[in-house]
Amino acid sequence: MWQLLAAVCWVLLLGPICGYDEKRSNTNPEANMNISQIISYWGYPYEKYDIVTKDGYILGTYRIPYGRRCPEKTAPKPVVYLQHGLIASASDWICNPPDNSLAFLLADNCYDVWLGNSRGNTWSRKHLKLSPRSSEFWAFGLDEMAKYDLPATIDLIIEKTGQEQLCYVGYSQGTTIAFMAFSTNPELAKRIQIFFALAPVVTVKYTQNPLKKLTNLPREVIKVLFGDKMFSPYTSFNHFLATKVCGKKIFHPVCSKFLFTLTGLDSRNLNMSRLDVYLSQKPAGTSVQTMLHWAQIFNSDRLQAFDWGNRGQNMMHFHQLTPPLYNITKMKVPTAIWSGGQDIVADPKDMENLLPKVANLIFYKVIPHYNHMDFYLGQDVHQEVYQDIIRLMKHHL
Known about the structure:
Blueprint: H1 2-18, H2 35-41, E1 47-52, E2 57-64, E3 79-83, H3 102-108, E4 112-115, E5 126-127, H4 142-161, E6 166-171, H5 173-184, H6 186-189, E7 192-198, H7 219-226, E8 230-231, H8 236-245, H9 252-259, H10 275-280, E9 286-287, H11 288-300, H12 311-318, E10 335-340, H13 348-354, E11 361-367, H14 374-377, H15 381-396
Parallel strand pairs: 3-4, 3-6, 6-7, 7-10, 10-11
Antiparallel strand pairs: 1-2, 2-4, 2-5, 8-9
Helix pairs in contact: 4-5
C-alpha cells in the first residue's frame, strides 16, 4: 500500500514532466460503472431486487435472465446463483469481458443467472431500522450470512423463477457460508441441485493469508485498530487509484501487488490491461466482526459460530455457553470442488483435510498453477474452470 501511495505522489509531481499525464491513461469504461451499468454495457438485460432478510438487512441482488446468444422466451431456464468471497461483491462475476466472466457465460448458455451481495458490502449496506453509522448495524459475521442472507436470497429466487431448485456457485467465503447454511438448514439444502465450490475455505490450519498475523492480537486491540463497524470500505481515494493511477501501464506491477496483497500474486495469469476494472470495485467492505470471526477460525482451526466473548451472550445467541461447531459432514448436497496448487488462502493441505468431510463429492479438480484469485480473474479460467461447471450442469440437470 505504501508503495502505491508513493507512486501516486510521484505521478502527481512529475507526471507532466515525464509525459505520464492523464492522456496516457487507458482507463476501461467499466472502471467508472456500477454493477447494473456493467451488465448493460456488454449488452445483457438485468433486473435488480432488494431482498429483505428476517433480521432486516436489505441485500442488493442482480439477475441476468438470459444471454445474448439465448432466446429471451426460452423457458424454463435452469437457475444459477453466484456468491462472492470476502470483502468483495457480485462485480467479481462480471469484471472480465463476456467470454471470460462466469455470469455472462452462463447467461449465454441459457441459464437464469442471479448475483448475490453479502450484507455490509457496497451494494448491501441498508437496513429497515438500523443506520450503517451505528455499531448495531455492523454486529454480524459469517453466522448471519449463512442463517439469514442465503435463505432470504434463495427464497426470492425460487419465488421469482418458479423453479424448485437451483445451482449454487460459491467462491472462497461464498463456499464457507454455503457449507454452514447447507449443513444446518436441511430445507434450504433440498433446494440446491449442485454446489460448485471454487477455492473453498473451511479448515485454515495451513493458510498463509497475511490476515492470519492479526489473529495473534487480542480482540480488544483489533477493535482499537479497526473500530467495531466497517472493515475495508471502498472510498473515493480507492476509485482515484483505480481509474487515474492503475490505468497507466507504468503502475501495473505495483497495482497488481496491491490487488493480490491478501491472496498472493499470480501476474502471469492476470490481464493487466483490466487492473482498473478489478480495483474499481474493491474492496467492497464487510464488518469488523466478520474479520474477528475469521480470526477465531484461524486460531482454533474449527468452523465454529462466532464467540461473543462471554457466556451470557453465547447463551442468548446459541442457547449454550460455547459457540456450536458446524458439522459439514451433515451436508448431503452434490458438491463439485476446484482448488489451486499455489493457493495461499485455501492451502492444498487444508483441502486434503476438507475433501473427506464432503459427503456427496461428485467432482474434484486441482489446478497446479492456480492461486486464490485465479478462480475468477485468471486469463485461462474459462478453460480450467468455467467449461467444467457448464459441462457438469448440462450433465446433471
